[in-house]
Amino acid sequence: MRTKLKSRQVQALQTKNKIYKVAIDLMEKKGFDNITVEDISRKAGVSIGAFYHYFKSKKDILFEIFHRFDKYFENEVHLTDGNTSEQIILFFEHYARYTKITGVNTAKKLYGTMDKLFLSTNRYMLSLLNNIIKSGQINGDIIDNIPSEKIAEYLLIAARGIAYDWCLHDGNYDIEESTVQYFGRLLPIFETKYGSI
User: How remote is the C-alpha of 46 from its chain's centroid?
Assistant: First the structure.
């Protein structure tokens, strides 16, 4: 009985992943506003009822992107090597990489101002960044006259700005390379060796 349940759980996860991947693929090709739940279901080879079993609405796919973004940071991003600034730059290189993996048309929808998903404060990736900054403040790499949460907010605003610009340019430049260069120039204002704001 238990094995059968696990088999059903695996099958359910596979179906949800298939719907998700098809939705992302269609969003990239046609844009979020130009596809329907019916389009996604047909292409995924599932019923519309099956779609609604896993996702409350088409917009729920966007919430799933954010959920998987956090899972990516939790499972794939290991930032223990290097000094604090190097860890922060690597964090944002991963941020840019995931944005690129998601795709420019999908990112255009995510970075629209109608959605407030970026403002959620209880996300894993945000706590990870905050912990890196706090550790940097404790070991003297990062200035401590600004709370770590505020520095994280400043840096995330910059990262979203880069992603937004990448979307404006239809993904026509390497967002990872640009992000690394940008943060290499930005971070010194928060490093103790340079003084600060």
Answer: 27
> How far is Cα 67 from Cα 14, in angstroms, rounded to an integer?
17
The DSSP call for residue 142 is B
Q: Whole-prediction pTM value?
A: 0.81
What is the spatial distance between Cα 57 and Cα 83, in angstroms, rounded to a whole number? 43
3-class secondary-structure state, position 191 = strand
Which ranges in 31-59 belong to alpha helices (H)? Answer: 37-44, 48-54
| 181, 92 Cβ separation under 8 angstroms | no
**CA dihedral (146, 152, 153, 159) positive or negative:** positive
- Residue 12 to residue 16: CA distance in whole angstroms: 6
Closest CA to 99 of 149, 161, 56: 161
Summarize pLDDT for 5-49 with one digit per residue, the tens: 587 787 888 899 899 999 989 988 888 889 999 999 999 999 999
DSSP character for 31? -
